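Shipment paperwork, digital attachment
Item: protein structure file
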Amino acid sequence: MLVSNELGGAGLVGLNLAGVLQTRLQESHIWIPGDGPAKRKAEELGLIHHVYDPANVLSSSRFSAAFGNWRIWQRFRYDKPGIVHIYSPLFYRAIRYAVKMSGLKSIVHIHLEEDKDGLSCDFKSPPDLIITCANFLVEHVRSALPRYLQKTQRIISVPNAVDVKRFSPSNKVLAKQKVGAPNGVPLVLMVANLAPHKGQETAILAAAILKEMKVRCHFWLAGIERGGKQEYTAHLYALCHRLKVADRVRFLGHREDVPELLRAADIFLLPSTAEGLPLSVLEAQATKVPVLAASTAGIPEVVTDRESGFLIPAEDALGYAHRIESLLRCPEISNRVTEQAYTRIIKQHNWSTYSEKVWTLYESLIEKE
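Attachment content:
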């Protein structure tokens, strides 16, 4: 069960996992809250999917919430034995009565460093298993649980993974031609929703500093502002014009060709202040693009500073600018770092290994029936 009709990291993980399950099980369904990019991706992948309305179960009205749980139970009660895998602790709390009445085993997947008070409320009646997308989240979640659950609750880390075949390196010159990037001009890429915590402001400030340093490069920002809003997008455009870098910074909007963008990129940027274990970092490493990112949440689990990438404080635009300049001046440093990151991704964060880990967890739950 996805809890957003947008297509962020959690949604992509859920959709990819559903695709694997559909090849291994007689029946596997993915639930999506309304029309949008997630539904279109499910259709593209040929997944059995259902659109549902989460409004009732998330309502502050007890009657509406109870009615919403009853409707979900009506859909679930014939699926036993089985598992419901929910991509939000808050939504698990909202539908836990339906899940418990259905007799299905339950998994809650956590992709962000959620507020501890919220987690404590969400897991008063805990699921059978909690999966985290990064190692650091295991103790964070455990410490947030009610005291009587802290020693007994099963929490497993299954670090995010990437489709290494889809995100494979190729000829950079040809890739630049394919996406329309000018040859001979270094390309710095960000792939992230447009949001204050993602760090687009830092990227734009770094572009301005590099312009003052007379370092020629372009910044491409792929992503959209969620929820149909445009306030932050307008703020970023205004910042570009105020700093006189509108000719160097390009907003790409939502893109379906992220692998090609990464193949064309010379440097990948993610100065984020809030994450789980971002897929975009893994995708960049799989494509042999050097990663410059903040030491936020799970990022240090896959980026070791100066070995498999570079860790720079999220708001240190000057630090990002100087590191970009040094990498463009000394490409051998980029080559060394990207090779080390690539080797690690291929061994530890490939999709085959990931799906096998989750499948093993599924089997362990079903065996207890």
